[in-house]
Write a structure and sequence with these properties.
heterodimer, A: mainly alpha, MetI-like fold, 3 domains, two-stranded antiparallel ribbon, 31 helices, 3% strand, B: alpha+beta, Rossmann fold, OB fold (Dihydrolipoamide Acetyltransferase, E2P), 2 domains, six-stranded mixed β-sheet, five-stranded antiparallel β-sheet, elongated, binds adenosine-5'-diphosphate, binds magnesium ion, membrane (chain A), transport (chain A)
Chain lengths: 729, 358
Amino acid sequence: MRPRSAIWLALGWVGFALLPWFAGSGTQPALAPPSPGPAGSALIDGLTNGRWWLLPIALPLLLALAVTALPGLRARRPAVLLASGAFGLAWITVQGFAIGLDGWASGWLGALFGPLALGQGGFGAGAALTALSFLFLMTNGFAGLGFMKGDRFTAGAIGLVLAAIAAFVFLPVGYVLSGAGDTGSGGFSAAALGARLAAPDIWRLSCLTEAKSCGVVWNSVFLAVMTGIATTLLGLAFALVAVRTGFRAKKLLRVLTVLPIITPPFVISLAVILLFGRNGTVTLAMSDWFGLPASRWIYGLPGVLLTQTLAFTPISFLVMIGVVQGIGPSLEEAAQTLRASRWITFRTVTWPLMRPGVANAFLISFIESLADFGNPLILGGNFEVLSTKIYFAVVGAQNDPGRAAALGIILLCLCLGAFWVQRQWLGKKSYATVGGKGDNGIPSQLPRGIKIAAYATALPWAAFTFVLYGLILFGGFTENWGRNNSLTLRHYLAAFDLSWGPGGLIWSGRAWGSLFTTIEVAALSAPLTAAVGLLTAYLLVRQSFKGRGAFEFLTMLSFAIPGTVIGISYILAFNQPPIELTGTITILIICFVFRNMPVSIRAGVAAMSQIDRSLDECSLTLGAGSVQTIRRVILPLLRPAIVASLVYSFVRAITSISAVIFLVSPKYELATAYIVGRVEQGDFGLAIAYSSALIVLMSVVIALIQFAVGERRIGRRAATPVTLQEKPV
Amino acid sequence: MSIASKAAGVEFRNVSRRYGNTTAVDDVSFTIEAGNLVTLLGPSGCGKTTTLRMIAGLEMASSGTILIGGKDVTRLPATDRNVTMVFQSYALFPHMTVADNVAYGLVVSGVRKRDAAAKATEGLELVGLGGYGQRLPSELSGGQQQRVAVARALVLEPEVLLFDEPLSNLDAKLRRKMRDDIRELQQKLGLTSVYVTHDQEEALAVSDRIIVMNKSVIAQTGTPDELYRRPKNRFVADFIGGANLIDGELVGRSGGTATVALGRLTLSVPDPGLPAGEVLLAIRPNAIRLRTGSADSAGDGIPVTVRKATYLGSHMEYGLTSEFGDLFVVDPNVASPVPAGATALATFTGDGIAAVAR
Ligand SMILES: Nc1ncnc2c1ncn2[C@@H]1O[C@H](COP(=O)(O)OP(=O)(O)O)[C@@H](O)[C@H]1O
Ligand SMILES: [Mg+2]
């Protein structure tokens, strides 16, 4: 216990006495001088600049030093470490929130303690290191007192994950809640909150009685229900075709499931515009052949519904394939030996067993649709949904963060509600009927009517999807789609041109900047995501501690928070001290880590549950500690899950839009945000060219990695395949 | 360099392990001598594995003291105890070769690679798997995997070597051979071993001493012979060897024997140390002999009716009905069996009867 506590204690002193306490004049945690006052550590600043409130941090550090250095106090050490860590952490937090840029952060503090001459900036490297040191001193103390079986590693890991989730999920969401009640002058009032939440343009039902549009909540819910039904039916049809028929091109159907992972969500909208927009191929053909006038019908509910169904059917397909495969064919064979016809078997055995899975697929699509941002942004027209309304409340002429926050609360409640229902449903009503043992029989063929229906829905839709992707890949090479279809490389050159200048190679294309930033952010966030996710999975699967269930729920909750809500909450929370990150690359990385973490957790949990616990226990009895066991036994066995998490987080960081569109800055622009910007400017050619480049890039990355991982085998056993199933909304 | 033994004794003092409201091990005390093989025997769910895992340090005692080699290890985690274990599932690391598996414990405790590899080779030879080092565990049969697990546990020269139902995943024939091999190895190296099983025959075959557990507590501790011949209670009498349990009355004692009345009969049994009065007689199935003849000539037996007779080649099995209840009999006399439905006289041989409390 001694060496590690001592190391953390030493780092705590370094953070307190040597490193600059505040972030630089930018908002990056850099070693530059902090904006208010000269550069300096908390110690120097507190002594020379009159920021006296930083000095009490020395107290717990001194206490911890005393118990670590003096052998006489050994017995007290865990309790003292715990107390000093907790006090240090609490003090840093409280002073950080209480004192802002110009003195007291809230008026009542000033009224209580008298005015403060000086304010302070956001936390910098010193503050971060010291806080981390306090956290680990605290968890070491906990373990020393005998909690967590005395395992310091476990205690530290739990502390770290909880602190991270608190700071980067719950704190921002808290800001949304308080932001919605903002009175405009920094105060909070329940009346303001109530007024914003009950605004008529959110809830009104006027579309039922007169020719006006309904409230935005009803729009969102209606759209989500329609999308949910459509995607579930299509997903079910696809799954039945893939699992229960002799369909030849099953591999091709599998390709469908990879598409949403590699495609930025709004790309489908672009393709739909190429077909059905005013200059779309179909629109032009219709007006040529039948004299139908070109209209903007696609902009609005029909277009968004169409694109969302296209975009989320593959996800529903993935869920349903698991459900259909999970039905033990022996059950159906049993029913048939009991003289049930194929149709009666389907109706009385197969369908009831599938029903919970169908409900689950519906809820997943429902949540996806609610949270989707890119498609309604591009195709919504006058049809407003919650996610776009939040966006326009912040970036538009209104710039009303309070209103955005209120809309965010409503969207969050809808998503969490659906998430909660889904978990209840899954927890109580899932039947896994394929046992590990014995002969499971052969899946029975579908009844004729259902088979035809499945083919008739799935195949045209699959063809449609492939046509759209073809359009996207091809569209970037035409001069001006629909009006002038001559081939050109103009758009690709505009985006990705290279030229030689006096200083050597010049990346003169307009897309390079955002592409490089995107890859950098993705490459930095992927390993972090995998690490945090797998660490959490390890805690969930391998350690038992009080409150494990709650811990699991908290980590999974961030899964259900829509991207737009995360985006607005990060803006509200991190554009002011104590944690000031807006406009930096750090905030983009953090955003991706916490958005993609749940997937990484699930991959880790699935893989780790396959590894028999006795392997770790055996390693422990052979003299290896927790850390050594993880390194030598668990990590090597988890390699497929690690790779899956890495790929997934990397790809998601490149393709996602909803949260980051709030967080990008001119300096750190991301590819998706840049493309959406082009679309809003009407520059379709470049947007499509850039999108297809991204899709091709992602496909290559995934293919390469699948190839590398697919080759790994453990002995005669195949490595556990980890599918990239989940997709945060 | 060779594999030696650092055998040490184990002592449990009033150890309990509770999970919430259930108590898996309840106030258990015992001592295991260094160099002995002691079996924890009992029905499924009686707390054997939990006891074993507390010796390993994989489970922490809720109360009580655990000593290994005279040192208090109650709060010491598994990593820091010199105790190794052969797991029921073998727990071979699938991503490491057999040699790496065996060397694992040495490598993580900082032994140089070369020395560890040499010792692993030696360990594999000891269990008869020399030359298999470069295979993966998945390329071995169940019995061979078992041996690798034993070798891996041995090369660390543990103070105590634990086995948790090591033979349960093997077929019957292999089971016999493995248990003899384990016993031979244990005696050759002078190891202290604790062996968990629910199979009483296995326990009788391999153990120096047996600790019989039932419902989280120790039912009886003793050598195989003591447990079979002088069970202390109904549970042990029934669980080890099987017994017909019938009511009798203890009427007197002299020397080391006691006299028990069973109807008109009097039988002598080893003195159970119980007060005179009602007792339960545990009569082994092979302590009863059948004699054909009329019921009233009975002087030294009880009249019975044969309900069922089964021919098993080496012996006969009978189900009998008597005034004391149903009896189960194993009779080596296959030359002149008694047919089902016949009446007969059941007599008792001297050995194989014990009195326990009712
Ligand atoms: N981790 C646990 N949590 C709760 N109960 C447990 C746990 N481990 C064992 N038990 C309970 O303790 C009792 C003894 O278990 P165990 O020692 O595994 O029995 P066995 O003698 O079959 O090896 C059982 O009733 C079991 O249900
Ligand atoms: Mg057991």
